[in-house]
Amino acid sequence: MREINSLVVEEVQAKAKSIRKNIIKMLGLAGSGHTGGSLSSADILASLYFWEMNIKPNNPTWEDRDRFVLSKGHAAPVLYATLAEKGYFKAGKLETLRKLGSPLQGHPDMLKLPGVEASTGSLGQGISWAVGMALAGKLDKRDSRVYSVLGDGEIQEGMVWEALMAGAHYKLDNMLVFLDYNGLQIDGKISDVLSPEPVADKFRAFNWEVICIDGHDITQIMQALEKGRQIKGKPTAVIAETIKGKGCSFMENQANWHGVAPNAEEVEKALAELG
Amino acid sequence: MKKQATRDAYGKALLELGGLHEDIVVLDADLSQSTRTAEFAKVYPDRFFNAGIAEQNMMGMAAGLSTANKTVFASSFAIFAVGRAFEQVRNSLAYANLNVKVCATHSGITVGEDGGSHQSIEDIAIMRSVPNMTVVVPSDGISTKEALFSIYEYKGPVYLRLGRPAVPIIYDEGLEFEIGKGIELRDGPDATLIACGMMVAMAVEAADELAKQGINLSVIDMHTIKPLDEELIIRKAKETGAILTIEEHSIIGGLGGAVCEVVSEHHPIPVIRMGIKDVFGQSGTPNELLQHYNLTTEHIIQKTQDLLKKKA
Fold it and tell me: Does the ipTM exceed 0.90?
């Protein structure tokens, strides 16, 4: 067991803050993109890339690496900001987000950007990739692990439940999936659009180990990741309660910040708040 | 005449290929007995995963496995592999240009008694419109095996279209098969029959019948619909001046559509498309259905005579 102390937590918190600031900056320059759901996943990605995962940014295709699939691909900015922070590419590239010819496509494109493990964005598909990667890991008897982040609106896709069934059937204990449970989707509250509740019971009924946490508490995220490593014979789902737009007060819990980028004034305000 | 279903040839060839290459992984969606992947599953259970009746997730799993350097063969019936899981094939496999082979059996109307809901007549049109996708439709058991060995060597997504019923063997063992190169089975000046899949054997039979009447036709097995052998089509258009396309698929967007695109751009000549005329299939035996939808040797002869009138 790795020690979870204030030192490592603060280190990841600092990374999450930097990632959030880059999300705001890149979206401001792009003029379009998904702000709210990128901010809600920032603490999860920071914990994965700066504490949990065994990866080599200078060798992104290293065979024994842990893998991460952003199933909620529209949150591409959080992935790009995290990869840049980790050193997969120069942070300057973030300025090209969504521009013609950029490797930073509106949704992640694995053929264009090192470190992107899966081309996602069409919801529901990423978790199936993750299941396939975990199967391959078992087949090759590797110790590596596979991680993924699902959106809460995303689990309305039937395919997600096909993937969950497969993950449990094949006893993929080398796999851990976060549900970024921010409660909002484009058309409003997920409870109004199409409620997936009871979410934890559904994952349990599909034979997944379920851990419920505050998705912005780095200590809780780390503890969940540690616990996930101890679970044998089944995959783990971490239901992470989050706040859409977390870190920028005027964006928090606002569904209309799902697919909108901040203007110059809003960028300034957001960066000031993030500190 | 010796006969073999292309799905049977697929099952056998997959088993053989699996013995040669450790990186081969096979997925199926609860149809492994029918698609014949069960033979591979029996011998290599560690490298076979049943996705259950969940074709969308099967394509996603195939994507994930292929990122770990597996060559994945994913099988189901054509209607489900292409229809149910289209967007997964498009966005997970083709968009990421992954090394996954979608090998679909039970294509076309010769699915037979199961009826129109299970008879895929649009799959060639759909798959060939997707960037990065290669589309192969072998005509008999021998070419199915060679096609399978070829698509293994090719790195990228492929759609392999296979059939349910036994069809005549038209090639000898050791056939040289190259993706994207049509095979000239007969060489005559009067018109060209371009066929794919199970219609190739009938096209040859029709051409041999007409040869007795002094009509000498060229016959091409256009086993690769994409990338299409444009050079061969243009050459035959110039040499013979008329083309009949024959496929067990809708006349919209499949082999016929693809050939028309090429000749209309490069060398416009009369073309007649034989296939399913924009209607759904129905229950019946494969032979009854081929008769009902005018896909027989006799109909090919008739249409060739119509074509020759158009040419004159």
Answer: yes
